[in-house]
Design goal:
Oligomer: single chain
Structural class: alpha/beta
Number of domains: 2
Mean pLDDT: 84
Largest sheet: 5 strands, mixed
CATH architecture of the largest domain: 3-Layer(aba) Sandwich
Strand order of the largest sheet: 4-3-5-6-7
Low-confidence stretches: none
Order of helices and strands: EEEHEHEHEEHEHEEEH
Strand content: 25-35%
Helix content: 25-40%
Length: about 220
């Protein structure tokens, strides 16, 4: 357990670690690349050393990027020139999707120790993601009035970034701040043509684009921008 302050709010961090994880699922992993980056969520990060040893026995060169925290893939990005693919050891697709969006590496393998399955993002899935991103960028460019979404949650709050972007975006811009951002509630502001998201990237719709995509940058530190 760790206690520290985030933006003036005392926060208690209690790691939720998985126990007795069966690594036999790695037998199903077939990779034609030899330089592998290992990534995981907090539940399984303690197993990455063991996963590395198993993959190295198959004559792979393995680099441990470590834990991804929410939408922060900075550790994986630092390794992107040293690896040909990433292996995400954990459950869900949220973190692997962020790897695709931020590193530019298109070979992402998902090893799920819960469901005992191994999968890989297909080219069709990646193409759909890129087409969706480009469509949102075009809609943003055409929009004359935008709303900028800001969360008050500790660790997500990017008010300074939002205010700066509102001044420099060369559009009629309004900053909307909330603790819980309700996508359905945004429909009440039908004069806003496009929303720019500085909060959690899980907030999605056909009219919401990430500030990272607007700026055409894979990694934007919202707390220093």
């Amino acid at each position: 357990m760790e206690i520290r302050e985030i933006q003036g709010v005392k926060t208690v961090f209690v790691p939720a670690k998985a126990k007795n994880v069966d690594l036999s699922v790695l037998k199903k992993l077939k990779i034609n690349k030899k330089r592998i980056g290992l990534v995981s969520a907090v539940q399984y990060v303690d197993y990455l050393d063991k996963v590395k040893l198993i993959l190295e026995k198959q004559n792979n060169k393995v680099e441990i990027a470590g834990q991804m925290v929410g939408c922060n893939s900075s550790k994986a990005i630092k390794l992107k020139d040293k690896v040909d693919c990433y292996v995400f050891f954990g459950s869900g697709e949220f973190h692997p999707l962020e790897l695709v969006n931020t590193t530019g590496i298109r070979e992402i393998y998902l090893v799920n120790p819960v469901s005992k399955t191994v999968s890989k993002f297909s080219e069709d899935e990646l193409k759909k993601l890129e087409n969706k991103r480009q469509a949102l960028i075009k809609k943003y460019i055409l929009a004359d009035k935008i709303g900028i979404l800001v969360s008050t949650k500790p660790g997500q709050n990017a008010l300074r970034t939002a205010l700066r972007f509102a001044k420099t975006c060369k559009k009629e811009a309004y900053v909307f701040i909330a603790d819980e951002i309700d996508v359905n509630g945004l429909e009440n502001f039908n004069d806003i043509k496009m929303w720019v998201n500085t909060a959690c990237p899980r907030i999605e719709s056909n009219n919401i684009i990430s500030l990272k995509d607007v700026m055409q940058k894979n990694l934007v530190d919202y707390h220093t921008y």
